[in-house]
Amino acid sequence: MLLLLISSIGAGFLGSLLGLGGGLIIVPILTLIYHVDIRYAIAASLISVVATSSGAAASYLKDSLTNLRLAVLLEIGTVLGAVVGFLIASYVDSKVLFLLFGVLLMFSGFMMLRKREEHRSSVNHPWAEKLKLNDVYPDGKGNLIPYKVEQVPFGLIAMFGAGILSALLGIGSGIFKVLAMDGAMKLPIKVSSATSNFMIGVTASASAGAYFLRGDIVPEIAAPVSVGIIIGSYFGAKIMMRVPSQLIRRVFVVVIFIVSVQMILKGWRA
Amino acid sequence: MELRISYLLRYGVLASGLFLAIGWFWLWMLEGNLLDSFTSYERKPLAQVIHHAVETSNWAMLISLLGLAILVLLPVIRVLLTGVLFTVQKEKILAGMSYFVFMVLVFSFFLGISH
Fold it and tell me: Which partner for B67 in A20, B20, B30, B100 could form a disulfide, CB atoms 3.0-4.6 Å apart?
């Protein structure tokens, strides 16, 4: 079990280094290496997601990058999605969970390779106008840059989908959130990342609570995983600035592809 | 005030982490390597687990469960406090949205009991 703690620290470390959630790393580790049933793995992963997000929420707000108003609006989508995801999960076969997870992981790998352009919108969607979702963010050089928010309804629907995936697969769905905010709603990437990270804890808790009361979150697994991921991501965040991320990303993308194929195979064969 | 909510969260995580660490370590000392019992899924409602732990005075388990419970509740508390924050700022729509999210979260917990 000590090994599990150490692996979780590693997972948290890597996750925070690469901007990936711990969930995407820990579920394969738990299922492929430790042979834990995927449902326990998903539940344990969810609670660790809650832990990291809640622990880091303070820093996200402090940076003035998180758009709290937008987060609250989008959380409506994610928690509703998470509830649906939880309900579906009981009817979905474990095989399908493996397949889905593998595909998602592969998708994340592609996303990591994609080039990110900085962009801002100068157009506000009517809902954004009404709720004053547009805001400013610090660009790191001492300037405050204003941005506006587009495509609010689409963002909400995307969040609903992200919520379903979160509850189903035990992840934070940060990738989808950032995709929706960055790609569709045209938020600056730093704002998308910070807001997404902020929202993740709420999304995860929407299903974590249910899994917990159902008894799927078992301390024997969840405790070392959560503690490990918290410790790992703390250190990962600290050294994140000093490490040449490009190289690590490339190596990790390869690992991700290998693991995703393994997850898919596991789902296919079982 | 938003910042203070987040600091509350952070300390909450630390507190729960402490409970979890203690509880887990204790469990480990008591029962050794248990991972093998989880290779296949078996439905065991939390209420049952708690009941059994209380009957056998399994404090290690109870402390671990407490740690997990705190963790799960933290975002829920955060959302509620955010709602209060918006109410104070007289932002009715945003407050309403926060409270709605809060209610969905509470509702989701009950789903775990029946499903």
Answer: B20
